[in-house]
Amino acid sequence: MDELKLPLSCATYHFVGKKPTAVIFSDERVEVKTWKQVFAVVLSRCNQQCHDQLMYLRNKVAGRDRLLLSDSPDGLRNPVKIDDDLYAASGYGSSTMMHILCNRILTPARFNFSGISVVLR
Fold it and tell me: Which domain holds residue 58?
């Protein structure tokens, strides 16, 4: 099956039913197998460039019922450790998880994700 490369900024419904194989940053390709890995890889890159902003957003970014970004894994849905005292909830479907990543975390952190693409199969 051919690979499809979509920008992270595209409408999230394009990710539904697809399997990620890699995240492409302008300068490197990172192989992944799951949407949770896409989420973690992009957040890790964001943390490298916008650490202070992510730390500021901890315990402030919430979904309907629980936090999405926290200083502790407690109470998070499938927590992903991004850094010491920085965890993100990842227990969502591909569309919801990419919406949370782009609109609820990366945009408020002022991280430019326009050059990031996801390779799908």
Answer: 4-120
